[in-house]
Amino acid sequence: MLTALLVFLPLLVSVVVFFSPRKIAFWVSFGGSLLALALVAMMINAFDPALGRQFVYEKAWLPDLGISLKMGVDGFSLLMLILTAILTPLIIASSYNQERSCSFYGLILMMESALLGVFVAQDAFLYYLFWEMALIPVYFLVLIWGDDSRKVVTYKFFIYTLAGSLFMLAGILLLYFNNPARTFDIDQLYTLQLSGNQQSLIFILMFIAFAIKLPLFPFHTWQAPAYTVAPTSATMLLSGVMLKMAVYSIVRWIFPIIPLGAWIWGDVVLGMCVIGVLYGGWIAVRQDNIKTMLAYSSFSHVGLIVAGLFCFTEEGIQGAMFQSFSHGINVVGLFFIAEILFQRMQTHDLKLMGGLRVSAPILASFFLILLFGSVGLPMTNGFIGEFMLLRAIAGYKLWLGVLTGATVIIGAVYMLRAFQKSMLGGVERETFTLSDLTLREKLILLPLAGIVIVTGVYPSVILQITGPASAKLGELFSVYLNYSSQN
Amino acid sequence: MKALILTSVIGIATLFAGVYKLRNKSVWVPFLGLIGVMFTLFADWNTSISWYNNMVRFDNYSLAFSGIVITALLMILALSMDHYKEAGSSIADIYGLMVFSVVGAIVLSAFSNLAMLFLGVEILSIPVYIMAGSNRRLSASNESALKYFLMGSFASGILLFGIALVYGATQTLDLDQMALLGPTVQSPLFTVGVLLVLCGFLFKIAAAPFHFWAPDVYEGAPGLVTAFMATIVKTAAFAAFFRLFSTAFISEESAWFKALWGITAATLLAGNLTALYQTKMKRLMAYSSIAHAGYMLLAMLTLNKQAGSAVLLYAASYTLASIAVFAVMLLVSEAQESDALVKFKGLAKNNPFLAVILAIALFSLAGIPPLAGFFAKYYLFAIALKSNLFYIVIVAIIASIIGAWYYLKSLSLAFMPSNEGAEHIPVGLPTKIVLILCVTGALVLGLRPDLILHLI
Hints:
heterodimer, A: mainly alpha, two-stranded antiparallel ribbon, 20 helices, 2 strands, B: mainly alpha, 19 helices, 76% helix, 1% strand
């Protein structure tokens, strides 16, 4: 019941927000997202990682088509729920002074509902519905509040992701028809024994959707323009949470159901990831638009996360989940910094900034903390995640580990370059009277920076949530790994 | 049967409303009458009675399709209350023609004899020929009527020729006997006849390569008549198509399956790809209706019991969404004196209500969950995959992606902030009710498709 409430509450509030007067729309939506956070907190409190799926809510929906409203929360889900529930109120708060209309906030809450739905759905059809529903609010957010060149970008983004989703639908349907019980219930799908060819086909169909959403090389061309032209709140949702839908989906719908398919294509995926890691980092170094730079950095980081997953070890999966969480926190923080800079200077261009540290020292400190997290400095969350991922990859294939290890260096290059260009150096513009952070901005950045450090020092806070679930997947794949090491 | 007789009587009564110069009040005659017809459909539910030596048989299948057609006509009539406000006395003629055309649609959903099929097609089409040309002063409307008439009669001829050959081969016009005899008939006349009948149908539903008439006819005809053609004519033609090919002609499946496979793929791609390049809403909807015919043809390829439900659900969801789009288009094109896509710019700013309706309707047409259009498409894909039609489903998926592109193109124009575009457009109460009903229907059918799937 708690699960269903968590998913549908933001949706209900969003309907209220659509029809509420403009003045209170912000507060209603903020309140709604805080309520969702409170529900997630209740879940954390009652959650026992060792028990597997909990808070199950099951209700018949279209029984003769094998579709039911089945939701539940396990370690992977819970981590993503926490991420979504923490970020949404912060994202809403970050747009407080922009005088958005009520539909803006309504759409964000709708989005939250769809995202939470994706993370709890235990029925493939229901999962697909939420996955697609997450697309609609973003489409409108970008279309209505985006930059000038958004028209083409929104098409590209929408069509690209829709294309991926439809192939995934075909994959899900194949699972459905290969299943004697003719149901979308995940527990039935777990019991399927499909042949290698079938798994391989289903993997391709489903993975296209995830590769686009993440995005992986060569499906990434929608990402940088979309992140750049979207209003920053939408960019935060896209990079902070929406992208994690795909990471989560791989561990939820691909690994346990079609492990052989994943195994067959594992090396191809690893190749795509590694190219993305290097390529994304390399482009990020050359960007002067801070949002574009962050977009490519996100592209690069995600490559590393997925590469960790496709090492098929417990450590890799744990690292990927941890890093997904960290990346969500860091990237949202960094995009918020970009937004703060934009509001004060009306530009995203790093070349036009410089010397901000003098006039805005607190801003510079927060920037530095988030940047350290993103670069992976020890004692920050990024370090733990990258360390685990790189170790898993190096354990799988040493040279791959070395190659992807380069991200740490490239990441440091582009991040520190951004910091240097904006915060350090001489004051480049005469009109430069920049105010430091307001209380609201501090209140948003404080929790983010706090999480960066706390989870960096005590990673077990996060790791213990997903531990048993990752261990289970690791065990599943240990058979494959042993088999291949014998040959 | 009650529905058929009652609807015919209403048609005549509507013409009398014109004689007595009720002018724009004459719409109430067919409107209230058809609501009565809806009740008779409910009263006859779960009966299966055949009439006049099995000329027509009213079973749940025909009642359900009649229900959709009549609901669509009720909505179009409600829209016309606002649209034809200043109408002259001839307006009752249009209403009468619409009702007569729906009589044909009911016959098409219920026929069980090929003679009735032909009668139904003609009763359906002839009023539409006249309706298409009802805007006499506009040359495009005249062109539309002439084109539709010429092409339509040609197709009727082919259909009739096919029926004659089938009769020659099987010695019967009765569907049930034909279904029994079919497997034993050796004559190639039967095959040729079936293929000719198929061509006749493909013309009526505007499937590629028989679709070239549709865009011009749709564009030239007055807006509400276009809505009528896109929804009612298409639904009725599909009802008949499926009824015939899933029973009487099923034994010849091997002859027409491959042809229909290719035609389905061609229709899906031709409709969607051409729609991409349209700059006018009416033409876009014409190509979109061709594309949607392509999706419904998927059901023709599977021909099992679920396929009937799938066609019904698809027809219902397509009708609801299309009527909403046509209604918004009519309002915008009246205010802007053009239906060019660019005239939709800035719709969201001054007319948020219309923009939201348009968004939901177009999302439903594009097949985005949780709307009816999504589920209808999903269900079609599912039954096609179940019949191992893997490749055509992939074609259909690619077609839906292209489809989403042009629906979003029009939607993007409406939602992009812009200073161009219409001032506030006043929306009359009947139109408002229809729009809200369409959108609610699209949502409800998206969440509870079993309401329709369980009908037949």
